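@channel sequence for tomorrow's demo:
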Amino acid sequence: MIFLWIVVAYLALLMGISVYKSFAIRGQDDFMVAGRSVPTYKLVGTLLCTWIGSGSLLAGAGLAARVGLSELWMAAGAWVGIIIVFFLAARVRRIAQYTVPDILELRYNKWARILGTLVIVIAYTTIVGYQFRGGGFVLNLIAGVPEWQGVIITAMFIVLFTAFAGMISIVSVDIINGAIITLAVIIAVPLVYIHLGGGEYIANNLDPSKLTVFGDNNFFWAMGIFFPTFLLLLGESNMYQKFFSAKNEKSAKSAVVWWVSGTIVVETAIATLAILAFSHFNSLPTSSDFFLSVADSEQVILHTARYSTEVGLPLIAGLLLIAASVAIITSTGNSFLMAPSTNITRDIYQRFIKPDASQKQVVMFQRLALILLGIFAYLLLTQFRTILDMAFTAYTMVGAGLTPVLLAAFLWKRVTTAGGVASIATGMGVTITITVINSILSEPFISTSYIVLPAAGASVAVLIIVSLLTRPDPEHKWKKFYTKEASLAEAIREQKK
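structure tokens (generated this afternoon):
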């Protein structure tokens, strides 16, 4: 029962902060980008919490439990992506927009904005959906709540929390969430390692392949799980929106250095904990209350937290790990719900439906969009077999649909409007087509681990070929992405020409 009270108390704390922060909302800037005043330490916390979600806690941990340290190829995609982002962060902040589709229209045209918005809505609501499922797992494990009821409770909390104060509430609580997540996994790993028997236990009980670079797989498999996270990170709308929230370019760039460090530490610790704990729980007799099957391996971290004393963790460490799990699920759910609601509000409602909307109307519309997207995310849960399938599909949607055109906007002056629009449509189209075919067939047409290869490959090919076959864009279309002097006002004036 104490686990349930810890979860309730922690959620009450988070909701209290959100309600309190809601009184500080004065308009669109506050709700969407936290008034563009987020300092470096808060930016680090919210970037870390956004990335370390159920994809790491459940899908990544489950994969690590099954294949070993080679799972880190999936995590490494993000690490490399973050390092590349270091060189783009200042430029992104300089443009000072609200959303990724804002960038797409500035560099390409309104169709790029619309298609980009569609990509983000589909991908991000899918990601939000498996945060809901993660919450269902937690409540079922600690309180016996039926999983479907736990999913609904989690969905209601995430939607309400985000709707109260938007980005201000997210960056305010994520520094707390980030600290708890980091502390919990760093404490848990050495304690479990020592309790199980240290190096002797690993030598005698672990399959040696679980400690190798590729495990029982090969380089092709490694690239299949590397590129979805790599491409997602580079096109991650939450990341760009939070860079827009930074108080200046220096804060944005400094935050990236700490972000990559924290991500490497936390994701490596989660994978290590999953491998050690699963090797113990899976080796127990199937009649044991603590036995964990391969089919349930995605719940290994939650199982470890709930039955912490079985693997040498004191009760307080188990409670901290449960709190960290809740922090991971809610913080990622909040951020990934915030991004598409901002896109719908900014890129559809404010851009095409009601350009003269007042600040109050914009905020109210976004709160309504949050509720509708929460319902849509819940419905998407029925379309996938596992959280890992949901994660790879969502990652590919962004990685193939957005990342190539975003990088081209900042790095390739020769990219054309036609090439950019065609690339977004191709990446999105290939991903959706393969996903639909897989859902119809009893066996996947292409494993979700490999969807990114044809989808991203087609997107990049179309981007290059169409751009080279069409007339170069005029200088004013790309200049703002390369010069410090290009102000937002100048960019908007040029866009209207």
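heads up for whoever presents: Confidence is low (pLDDT under 50) at residues 485-497.
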